[in-house]
Amino acid sequence: MKSIKKFDYYILLEKITPLIAVIFALLVGAIVIMLIGENPVFVYKTLFSNAIGNRDGWGNVLFRATPLIFTGLTVAFAFRCGLFNIGGEGQMYIGTFLATWVGFTFTNLPAFILIPLCILAAAAGGALWAAVPGILKAKTGVHEVIVTIMMNWIAASLTFFLVLKFKAPPTAAMVAAGVKQMIPHTSEIAEAARLPRLYTIFKFLNINFPSYNQVNVSFLIAVGVAILAYYILWKTNLGYEIRAVGYSPLAAEYGGISVAKNIILAMVISGAFAGLVGTNEVMGFKYRWRQELFTGLGFNGIAVALLGKNHPLGVVLAAILFGILNYGGAIVNIFTEGRIPRELIMVLQAVIVIFVVISDEVVKRLIRQRRKTL
Amino acid sequence: MPEIALEMKNITKRFPLVVANDKVSFTVYKGEIHALVGENGAGKSTLMSILYGLYQADSGQIFINGKKINIANPNVAINLKIGMVHQHFMLVPPLTVAENIILGMEPKKNNIFIDMEKAIKRVEELSESMGFKIDPKAKIENISVGIQQRVEIIKVLYRGAEILVMDEPTAVLTPQEVEELFGILRSLKKQGKTIIFITHKLNEVKDVSDRVTVMRRGKVVGVKNTKDTNQEEIASMMVGRKVIFEIEKKPLNLGKTALKVEKLEALNNKGLPAVKNISFEIKEGEILGFAGVEGNGQTELVEVITGLRPASSGKIFLYDKDITNYSPRSIREDKIAHIPEDRRQRGIISNYTVAENLILGSHYRSPFNKGLTLNFTAINNHANNLIKDFDIRPSDKDNLLKSLSGGNQQKVIVARELYGEPKLLIAAQPTRGLDVGSIEFVHQQILNERDKGKAILLISADLEEILSLSDRIAVIYEGKIVDVLDPKKTDEKEIGLLMTGSTTNKKLSKVK
User: Fold this and answer.
1) Residue A45 falls within a domain, yes or no?
2) Beta partners for B229?
3) Do A240 and A368 fall within a single domain?
4) Given strand B336-339, what is the order of strands in its sheet?
5) Which of A176, A225, B191, B230 has the greatest number of C-beta atoms within 10 Å?
6) What is this model's ipTM?
């Protein structure tokens, strides 16, 4: 009986490898901070106390975590079907642009129609963009990694083309000053298309929360989508089939499951998650499309999914951790008057990812060694 | 008293979930062929892995030629002249026979270049010493499995082995090749080599070994001189109870034609013809066995019938319905059950639980699926019932399939496939790699289905299985049915010749 307990202990270890990785990464970060000549205890204290030591900090963390939840789920969901969707960036672009277009085009619709319509447009845009690699993979076997990467560039170029087509007219102030748009951007979406900030809900509940905090309803949508992803994967027939294809396409085929159909569906759903980033970035924050070449949110989703072990709950937690590091890092940068660069936080994130991969492999080998019997 | 070549004393090896070897003592005399038998999981492989230095024993000692030794890794074992012929060959396909044999111990010319001439000469010497010829310049990928095994044996001898461990060497061979292998083993014995022969197959123990050690659940349950024992005794020692060897078959009771295959053709994965103009029928209550060396179109034939591979021409009828090139799902809905030959890749999803595996193929139908969501009450009840009916162990429906033994994985497949009263059962290599107890179980299930009036297509590389279960035997060679035989009027020898492409003059009356 004792030996069985020991075995469970290894299983537990397997589950918490990301936590171990985070601890190791923070230690490595501490060494780097010391090399720069700063005090790691002070840096970490500043980082964490500002990020999660008060409500404003938490709001900022969750605001930064929201898009990462969406893009993390994008990667995790496709991965459950055995697909490596690294096209979250492009799917996010198309979804977000489509939502923006709906938002500034159908300006006379009431909020209770326009908001759902914009959300739907965001999801549909992402889904559409992911459907292409899905169909190509299912029908011709072209690897999804290649196609999604190329689709990222097409999305960036396409939105660039579209933003110039739908460029906002210059404001009176700009005309007076004789300046042009520095970053190409569209008109603002209608008031009725905007998601309220969480501040309004807290106010209603009589909870003290700063009104300027940018965290908005999109965070709740993200959490809802994570629950939805979990529900689809583990409680529905569709999820059973998607995971079966992911684990063993041959066995799935044998069991009468259409591998092609599930690959396409998994990509479409995964892409829809990416498109929903638009609910935070446009509907809840900028209220307009502003052209950038890759925000990195889509790519960071890969790290988030990896850290979250491709599980929706893990993705939410990993996204929050990245939110803490992003926001806390910015604060540390200000507090140390730039002596600790923000890039240090990127190093930390990268080290975490590397340690997740390493500790995953180490624990796997430990378990294999234990299990290698008979 | 014969000289002792190897003695393992009180070997204990614990793994977290099991005691794989529990105070095992194992003695092998110099120059004997010693069979080591036991069911899967009995601890044979663990014991041999300890001998070969792949594992360290928790306690116990090993003596070779009377000297106590410590085998830390396989290199130590090789230096001690212990050689292992693995069940899965460790050969490099594009290299030649000689190149594979010398790999890692190449003879050198001027300390720089490989001395191929010397290598080839040595390989020829070794093969002649065992009474066969081998082409040292042939590439591994171009020679048969039987010859590849000889290469493995030469490889071990080249490294100077005096004690050879052979892990289930006959699993991949045809009956003729098995005979030839036994000839090789006997000539090695004559040269004074010591051979440890791991097997499940009791007739082989009887044929070739001098002594036999039987293991069960990590313990040695008996050591016998082969000539003083018999198959029944060894089998009951292995499983711990009496085993029924003679399969009781009820008289044939044929019904309507269930499956009719007409001039079927199909390609393999490389796009070459694999199934060539095959026609046959199976009636209700009948088992049609397909005998043949693996890779002669059996796999493709089954895949075409089950919808996993398109037919390039020809027709398949289930009763009167043309099901040619239907999807796997609709063929399942027409009640064709399939125990696939590739258990691990096709038959199970090893990361799914027992309960999840038991609904594969019917997961989208009532009662397991209600609307969009799975009905876990129904799924769990279904699992608990089948676990009980088919005695799947451990009996927890939430275990991942990969944690089950091969025999229990196969029980999960059999339970799933027989559920829902199939009209046709296709069983491909249904007992491969299973232990005696599980084989008995699977055979009984197949016969029950036959007696219930189901049509059964059995494919097996195990001729004993084909002969004892089938009502008719079709021999398949290079994608064609070369003959159809009556199992009562044929034997392993005749089938063995037919399935390797030689034709017999003795034409048997076909039971058609």
Assistant:
1) no
2) none
3) no
4) B336-339, B424-428, B455-460, B287-291, B472-477, B480-485
5) A225
6) 0.86
pLDDT digits (tens, 9 = 90+) for B356-393: 999 999 999 989 999 889 999 999 999 999 999 998 98
Give burial (CB, 10 Å; 0-12/13-18/19+) of A167.
middle
| Confidence grade of residue B511 (pLDDT, cut at 50, 70, 90) | very low
| Residues B4-22, mean pLDDT to the nearest whole number | 87
Partners of residue A257 in chain B, C-beta under 8 Å: 329
Name the average pLDDT for chain A: 91
Q: Which residues of B touch A6 (CB under 8 A)?
A: 16
Both A128 and A224 in a single domain?
Answer: yes
- A48 found inside a domain: no
Quick one: A320 and A334 in the same domain?
A: yes
- Minimum-distance CB partner of B361 among A6, A248, A255: A255
**A351 and A283 within one domain:** no
Scanning every residue of chain A, which has its alpha carbon at the shortest distance from the alpha carbon of B216? A374
Q: Which chain A residues are Cβ-neighbours of B405 within 8 angstroms?
A: 374
Name the minimum distance, in Å, from the CA of B132 to any CA of chain A: 35
From the CA of B239, how many Å to the nearest CA of chain A? 16
Does A256 contact chain B (CB < 8 Å)?
yes
The answer to whether residues A103 and A81 belong to one domain is: yes
> Which residues make Cβ contacts (< 8 Å) with residue A116, sequence separation at least 6?
none
Contacts of A205 (CB under 8 A, 6+ apart): none
CA distance B16 to chain A (A): 5
Asked whether the beta carbons of residue B342 and residue A371 sit closer than 8 angstroms, the reply is no
B408-420 pLDDT per residue, tens? 899 999 999 999 8
Nearest residue in B to A10, CA atom:
B16
Nearest to B347 among A7, A251, A374 (CB): A251
Indicate which of B12, B14, B15, B303 best probes the interface with A, i.e. most A CBs within 10 Å of its own CB: B15
- List b or e across A283-293, with b for residues whose CB sees 16 or more CB atoms inside 10 angstroms: bbbbbbbbbee
Q: How far, in Å, CA of B381 to CA of B197, rounded?
A: 44
Task: Compute the nearest-CA separation of B408 from chain A (Å).
Answer: 14
Would you list the domain boundaries of chain B? 4-239, 257-347+422-499
Instruction: Note whether B361 contacts A251, CB cutoff 8 Å.
Output: no
Contact call for A256 and B16, based on CB within 8 A: no
Of the two residues B216 and A60, the one the predictor is more confident about is: A60
How many domains does the structure of chain A reveal? Answer: 2
CATH code for the part of the protein at B4-239: 3.40.50.300
Write out residues 218-247 of A within 8 Å (CB-CB) of B: 235-238, 240-241, 243-244, 247
Confidence of residue B243 (pLDDT cuts 50, 70, 90): low
SS (H, E, C) A186-236: ECCCCHHHCCCEHHHHHHHCCCCCCCCCCCECHHHHHHHHHHHHHHHHHHE
Task: Please compute Rg for chain B using Cα positions.
Answer: 25
pLDDT number for residue B25:
94
* This prediction's pTM: 0.82
A188 near B CB under 8 A: no
Taking an 8 Å cut-off on Cβ atoms, the answer to whether B347 and A254 are in contact is yes
Range of the domain at A14: 1-38+341-374
Q: Does B347 touch chain A (CB under 8 A)?
A: yes
Q: For B300-311, what is the mean pLDDT? A: 96
May I ask the CATH class of domain B257-347+422-499?
A: alpha beta
Tell me if A44 is assigned to some domain.
Answer: no
User: What is the 3-class SS of B449-511, one letter each residue?
Assistant: HHHCCCEEEEEECCHHHHHHHCCEEEEEECCEEEEEECHHHCCHHHHHHHHCCCCCCCCCCCC
Lowest mean pLDDT among A94-108, A124-138, B48-62, B237-251: B237-251
Query: What is the pLDDT at residue A7?
Result: 55
B104-161 pLDDT, tens digit each: 888 888 888 989 999 999 999 999 988 888 999 999 988 888 889 999 999 999 999 9
Residues B437-476 pLDDT 10s = 788 889 999 999 999 999 999 999 888 899 999 999 999 9
